[in-house]
Amino acid sequence: MEKKKLYRLLLALVIPLTILYTFGILGYVPYQVSYYITVFFIVLFLALRWYERFNP
After folding, report:
1. pTM of this structure
2. Closest by Cα among 43, 44, 22, 46 to 34
């Protein structure tokens, strides 16, 4: 998959998760949902960073 398509797909995934995360912080959804979204964002950040480092 080319880089531009991958980033568009990730953006479409991250924006709804960010909204869901915000609802978790506000108390509309269980806080545990926000916890798992945070873990997912950290793993995604590390994966993208490693991908860029090893595949320039």
Report:
1. 0.79
2. 22
Q: Which tokens in the block code for residue 45?
A: 């950040």
2 pLDDT more than 70: yes
d(CA 10, CA 53): 18
Q: How many residues does the chain have?
A: 56
Alpha-carbon distance of 23 to 13, in angstroms, equals 16
Which string of DSSP letters, residue by residue, matches 1-56? --HHHHHHHHHHHHHHHHHHHHHHHHTSS-HHHHHHHHHHHHHHHHHHHHHHHH--
